Amino acid sequence: MTEDKENVLQPQRKNSGKGARARRRGSVPAGAGGAKEGEGETGKPRRLAGIRPRISIEELRNAYKRQASTPQEEILPMFDPMAKAQESKGVTRGRTGLVYDERMAEHRCLWDANYPECPERLTHTLERCRQLRLIERCEPILPRSATEDEILKSHSRSHLYLLWSTKDEKNEEKLENISSHFDSIYIHPETYELALLAAGSTIDLVDAIMAGKIQNGMALIRPPGHHAMKTEFCGYCFFNNVALAAQVALEKLKLSRILIVDWDVHHGQGTQQMFYEDPRVLYFSIHRYENGTFWPELRESDYDNVGAGQGRGFNFNVPLNKTQMRNEDYLAVFHQVLLPVAYEFSPELVIVSAGYDAAVGCPEFDPELVLVSSGYDAAVGDEKGEMEITPAFYAHLTSSLMALANGRVAVIFEGGYCLESLAEGAALTLSALLGDPCPKLLDPIFKPSLSMCESLLNLIYVQRPYWKCFQYQGSFSVHEKTNGDTGERHIPTLSYLGNATKPLKYETRNCYPVQSQEVKEKIKLQLVRLKQDKPPQMFENNRLCLVYDEAMSNHHSLSEKEHPERPERTERIWKSLKQFGIIERATVLQSRHATQQELELIHTHEHVNLMASTSALSENELLSMQDNYKSIYLHPKSNEAALLAAGSLLQVIDDVCSNKSLSGIGVIRPPGHHAEQDHPHGFCLYNNVAIAAKYAITHHGCERVLILDWDVHHGNGVQHAFEADPKVLYISIHRYDHGLFFPSSEDANYDQVGSGDGEGYTVNIPWNKSGMGDAEYMSAMLQVVMPIAYQYDPQLVLVSAGFDAARGDPLGGCRVTPECYGHMTRLLSSLAGGRMVLALEGGYNLSSISYCMTMCAKALLGDPLPSLEPGLVPNKNAVQSISDTIRTHKKYWTALSFQVDLPVEDVLCQGFGGGAQPVESGASGSEVSSCNVSPVSTPSTASPPYVSAPSSPDKTWKNGNCMENGASPQLECSSERTKFDSNKMDIEVTPIPELQRSVRSRVKSEKAASASVAEQRDVKVGGMQKEFGSEGSSRMSRRKVGDQGGSGESANHTSTPIRPSRPVKNVGLMLRAAASCAGIVKGVTAIVSNENTCDACYKATTLDSGSINGILKHCKELKLLHSCTRLEARPASEEEILSVHTKETLEGHVQRGTCSKSPCSGDPALTAAGSFVELISEVVQGNVLNGIALVQVSDHTSSGNQIISNNYINNLAIGTQYSLDNIGLQRVLIVNWNAQNGYNTQNLFYNDPRVLMFSVNLTDDQSATKGSVDRRGENKGLGYTFDLSLNRDSQSKNFTQGDYLAMLHQVILPVAYEFCPELVLLAIGNELVHQSPTVSPLIYSHITQMLMPLAQGHLTVMLEVGNAKEITKDIAAATLSALLDKAVELLPVIYENTSEVQDSVVNMINVQAATWKSLKQHAQTSCINTKKQANASSTVLCDEQQIIAKAFDGCVTTPTHTLCLAYDEGMMEHFSYDDETHPERPERISCIFQRLQEFGIVGRCHQVKTRLASAAI
Q: pLDDT tens, 211-242?
């Protein structure tokens, strides 16, 4: 087959209908008439955008040149696509941890022996785990009690105290009385200790997972926790175990993305409330709601509660409005919402609140780490849940989550009250965590219930403004005229019918549903059928079998040495499996030849004989014969290799189907899925997978075999072999390109569904363009493959595992990563009891296929998989293809029930609507999603993850309700809530205000919800009280604390702002940030000074006003001022002064003026402060890039109402506070290089993590020097203060330039880059130079230059002018020169570090390393001694001559050109003949040069003419 060199695609061909079988298969028998091979029906050559087996070296050279000269629309990825696969080498599945303590069975109700939350819940579960021999396979985690500090991370002190007061209480009546004030609570004398034990055990389980001690784990604990709120016991829960563990992971482990899955049948409102405004935690709850009538009867449990503030879009509620929900309903939740969002979120930990009260028989479910609130009250038989989730299904739910977060999953035991169903569900959950195959689901999967469809569509409607994965529902306008035919449309509604009235006391006895004996017997019979009759089969040493034979390498092309289907394909894969240790962990099977009888299960007798005859043909005869077929080459050893490939795969089928191995991989070639029944095709001689499927049916009795073909080319041979056979479900994901991509057959389109009895059993997902990647393939898996596969319920899964859709493949043109293939394999492994076989098909980049197959093998072995990139979003073209497939097959597979239209208007009057988020139509969503803002790209953003959809324009308000065109409001509520009267609590403890609010009284608006979560704290500094904000200050928010604004959302959330501003590392975002710099050049530098102040006022100070004038004159002589923008000095406003100082301080300055002006505009202190604020404002607004403020008086040691001798004002603190409060910055870096102790500036921001302050001080107090490293902030600001105090006594007075550079390089710069400031404030003076004769003023130019790359160059310098005029002038000139980006002289002498500085820096690193990752790599010897420059004099001059010698005498000679550039296209002639995807390829330099052109850099450079190096060199 050939391909046009320009690779121009023809227009889309119209479907001409089905013709003869031979024509449909794209083949004409030798000797037959009609069009020649490769021609269409008209006999004209057809351009095929597919395989290029005969590309010449000259074509390759020309292709490289064309590609290099063609402008590229998108930024090429600047990362190694195989990096994650390489890093996974040596990473194998760890052990599963289990924590429990049988003492927890002591917690029971003393006054009601039938209470459903009983000790037997734990004891029965443990007994069942022992029966299945699960506990002995786990790594034990020792239980321990939580500490007071840990509990207070999520609960109030009064909450803790109240439960503590019941410890060892023997008065049963008193305990019942206390319990009656809380909903569904009983308290036992041991409850306090056991609740602490449950919380501490959960925290330690999560710690062990994150520390890598275990892979995953389960906490079998009680009492449960997910209903417990900050100040209230509720629903059997006292301390919120899951929330506490998540909070510790956020604060201690510095996680930024945690997924909490709560499948308990009761809504975990306590967990929801604690993270409602925190974008670091994605909370996902599936619970019974019944329009608010099911406990806990809260309005906040409905789907429209999506989070608030920064956390908007990170709260998911799936309300179940009917009972008898089945497996298919929960499966739809996972496939349609949870897993797509989870892959876009890409968590670091998954925590599961595992309640089992939705299981069969439960009476209460009536008609990044991943954390799972594992309630089992939705299981069959639970009298509370009254749902019909089978116990085995919990293993499937757990398995689907184990691919996330590198396998870090923690399952926490919550509800579940049918003891048999609970024990079985929990045991099978633990079995899944141990890596056992998912048990077979005995009940068939039907269509999700109508109620579930409505709930999920409602949820998608309110969440799609925030998540781009929701692309498969269309949009319509409610104002459109439909002519009576509305089609498939859904309009979300809200209905709340719950009882909002809260009683003064709650029932403590007989307050739960009770099943009749008849129902119990019925459930018992049902559970007997569903219960595992024996322990799950363990495949510890035989999880995977492999087959490979070197003899397959004898098959190679006689005419083309570099043919893409070459022997190295299997050789490299086998080598990679060895390197990763896969082979030693697997069973290697003996290869064998397929028999003729086995081959004829698929192929005709004539075809088998024809292939056998090739062994006796000459080379010329083989070359002539192969030209009769499409894309085929033949060799005398080809048939033997093909027989080995087919027969070896049958060896794997035998091993897996006989349960000797759980899964298998055939590293075989030649491939097979193109081979037709009567002729070879597309590199394929025999159809290996088709033969294997038929063999499994005939020899092993399989009745349902799933074949997933993810090769980039359509498996025409497999489809034709089974298109009328319902025993084989064939699903193919492939490039189609409107019929122009190989094999160029219309049979590959989405409308081909099979025929006869096999109609609906052929599913094609055709891509119509190149560039598809992880996002598109994972979307196809979740939207189409997995829903259909679960409904089909296969007994064996076969994968035509071609890897030519992988990144770097020369034929596929797609971008799937190796780890994505691993994730697809993991998803499929939950089917067919884990019986799964992969057979190699295509894939022609040797590096890619090796890593891809290795990742699939690791997935089958249960190893943790590398996480996919966050923000995976399929592109527009892929969404269309998947939607076409769904629309075609929804009549065959009822699981595909969610492709309906949703309104674009805000029909709920809550700011929702607006349609699906727009996605790119060009590149793979895997690429573009990383460049677009996503809910997970920056979890600390203040604004919603995506722009909120506009509300409907036609709204009116009536009686406080939003009306849509006069229609009645969508929300219906009944009853009103009454307030809780704490005075009527007849208990012997002091009423606590925080306990006076019940969860049932918290049906609140989003405004109230935000206010309840955000807690304000006070920071007392210098005698005044300053309001700092909530426990976690919001980022990018310009709203002051307490200001609710118009939206009613709080600007803050309660999470700890550990690295509050550090963006999540995302390569795509970095590339997009770089691209956004195109056209941006250096801005201007500003200068502001207060030399023209009131002379009368200056007489009150001891300073000389001539200092600034001297500095300006000196800078003018050096020609520095003409490049600057002069700003007008102004006095600080009253509001600006009062942000730091008291009114007495301000009045002191106003009254001190002798010019009779009030306030005195010439007061030097007021003018200094105002001028610095003005400079900051201009820099942040972008009017100037940077600047320097020359202020005559200043004192950063001032704060509060303190007035020292000259009554100075703290300019530095005022400017910092202005940037925080008025501009809304969240990360400000202060570098105080003034040598004067700025403790009061430190005190002002000592608790504030928004300000990182470095202070370099000289002091005469030796004790202050020793204690300075311990001054590092408090509370939220701990670690954000660095105090480097140096003792300037007579013995160590002469600090060197090397000392100051060491401080900068070893401490300041590493931490500053980790902090990633938005503004840098540099305060300098002359003391460091004046007190150290060996230090040159030039040091300030170097300090300034090293700080300029931070904060996008937003740097403001405040020079506090002193009496030493000559030194100060030189310092100012050196600093201004650096701000103007002028070249400056080298430092004359760099002396070795003094021992005192070495010790100070090392001590600082040791103290702060726990807070800053950038300091952890420093050893105690990291304070590098800088060597003296060559020929530098070591003489130290300590007199005035040395000071003069250090004078700054201007910049070094300015060169003619700032930058020169050398580039020659001739360098592109160097490339690899063997591997066109070799990483060192010509595009490297051509793309760089193109980017330099796009950024306008080439035109601004001096281009140097290139030349050859001489022979002498």
A: 999 999 999 999 999 999 999 999 999 999 99
CB half-sphere exposure, 109, CA atoms < 13 A: 21
CB atoms within 10 A of CB 681: 23
Cβ neighbours of residue 1466 closer than 8 Å, sequence gap 6 or more: 1506
Q: What is the DSSP string of 893-960?
A: -TT-----EEESS-TTSSS--S-SPP--SSS-HHHHGGGS--TTT-TT-SS-SSPPPPPPSSEEEETT
SS3 378: strand
- 411 phi and psi, to 5 degrees? -105, 125
Residue labelled with tokens 């690295």 = 1059
Dihedral of the alpha carbons of 1222, 1223, 1226, 1229, in degrees to the nearest 10:
-100
CB neighbours (10 Å) of residue 87? 11
Nearest to 1150 by CA among 1213, 1210, 1218, 1094: 1094
Position 668: which residue type?
I
Under 8 Å between Cβ of 1360 and 1324? yes
Longest dimension (CA), the chain: 116
3-class DSSP state of 1374: helix
1434, 1391 Cβ separation under 8 angstroms:
yes
- Which segments within 689-771 are labelled E, that is strand? 705-709, 728-735, 762-767
Q: How far is CA 1370 from CA 1299, 1332, 1439, 1441, 1456, in A?
A: 20, 15, 17, 15, 26
Within 13 Å and on the Cβ side, how many CA atoms surround 114?
Answer: 8
Write the CB contacts of 540 (distance below 8 Å, at least 6 apart in sequence).
Answer: none
| 462 SS3 class | helix
CB half-sphere exposure, 1335, CA atoms < 13 A: 25
Return the amino acid letter for 1214. I
* pLDDT tens per residue across span 1105-1147: 447 888 888 888 888 888 899 888 888 888 888 888 887 777 7
Written as six digits, the tokens of 693 are 């499927």
Catalytic amino acids?
227, 674
Half-sphere exposure of 1157 (CA within 13 A, CB side): 13
Percent of the chain clearing pLDDT 70 (strictly above)? 71
Quote the CA–CA distance of 1421 and 1164 in Å, as a whole number. Answer: 46
Which helix (H) or strand (E) segment is 1017 a member of?
A: strand 1016-1021
How many Å apart are CA 1312 and CA 291, to the nearest integer? 51
CA distance 437 to 972: 46
Report d(CA 1272, CA 180) in Å as an integer: 47
- CA atoms of 742 and 790, how far apart (whole Å): 30
pTM: 0.62
| Tokens linked to 1217 | 């506070």
Q: Is 618 strand, coil or helix?
A: coil
CA-to-CA distance for 364 and 355, rounded, in angstroms? 12
Cα separation, 299 vs 145, in Å, equals 34
Per DSSP, the residues of 981-1016 read: -GGG--SSS---GGGG--GGG----HHHHHHHH--E
Give the span between the Cα atoms of 817 and 812, in whole angstroms: 13
CA contacts within 13 A on the Cβ side of 124: 16
Backbone φ, ψ for residue 730 (5° rounding)? -105, 120
Both structure tokens of 508: 């403590």
Which segment of 297-311, 491-505, 675-689, 1079-1093 scores lowest on mean pLDDT?
1079-1093
> How distant, in Å, are the alpha carbons of 569, 848, 923 from that of 815?
19, 10, 10
3-state secondary structure of 1073: helix
Query: Sign of dihedral through CA atoms 300, 306, 309, 310?
Result: positive
Determine the Cα–Cα distance for residues 1413 and 1218; give it in Å rounded to an integer. Answer: 29
- Check pLDDT > 70 for residue 194: yes
Q: Is it the case that residue 1004 has pLDDT exceeding 50?
A: no
Predicted local distance difference test score (pLDDT) of residue 1498: 79
